[in-house]
Amino acid sequence: xxxxxxxxxxxxxxxxxxxxxxxxxxxxxxxxxxxxxxxxxxxxxxxxxxxxxxxxxxxxxxxxxxxxxxxxxxxxxxxxxxxxxxxxxxxxxxxxxxxxxxxxxxxxxxxxxxxxxxxxxxxxxxxxxxxxxxxxxxxxxxxxxxxxxxxxxxxxxxxxxxxxxxxxxxxxxxxxxxxxxxxxxxxxxxxxxxxxxxxxxxxxxxxxxxxxxxxxxxxxxxxxxxxxxxxxxxxxxxxxxxxxxxxxxxxxxxxxxxxxxxxxxxxxxxxxxxxxxxxxxxxxxxxxxxxxxxxxxxxxxxxxxxxxxxxxxxxxxxxxxxxxxxxxxxxxxx
Length: 334
Hints:
mainly alpha, 334 residues, disordered C terminus
């Protein structure tokens, strides 16, 4: 289909052929750029791209990039393509979910070029809201039900969508201040419900608690948004108040290990920065910071009850010198 198998040998492998097209996305001629963009979109739609996530992310960045604001043919094509691709099948939407957070972070630097009256396109926050909608499995299910004339399924595949929140929270610790705010606002746009996997909701709560206690935000709007998200998580976890959270039991769950290890890695980085051996840097420009991989196996705290009290209880007085430190660090120092 589309002749990719016939054309690829003339330039190498199928991947080489896609790379050739890929390079033409930056072509200065708008007609060429639009034609190549449409061709790549068709190949993605037909599942003919070897690494669809990488290419989809580039199309998303290109779509919102200020340099394509006058390329109406390209933008019109992609305006139809993204929802058609995302809502066609669960596998397609899984790819969109995979690149959502990294794309939002990259757009932080791309859209810095738009300021004041010169703004010609969406802001980072508006782009984030739109991409998250394309990644929402409930919209896919509603469209599928409408097209088939059946009722909407009560059970929706929320795993990949909920993982967006986990990835976003992990990125918040490393992102620039502007992107941090956008990511936190995006958390509430997810509108997670009872279909979300329990373990992922627990992961979200641990990361939200760690983020709250690091006090990275000074503006009331973002702090309130984070507090609202935490409150919604408690409701979904069927926990009445923060003090009722039992982190000790969560520490014993294998599925929770990666999140606690992630928080422990933050402790290690804090130590290095405190010693003058490390510098905090934003991952906004490259999007290379791995939010999904395990970060080793640091020593687990033995005082789980103390960890639970320090991490969860908002009533407990915390020394000023420790307030910016994460729950695991506080537990170990106690």
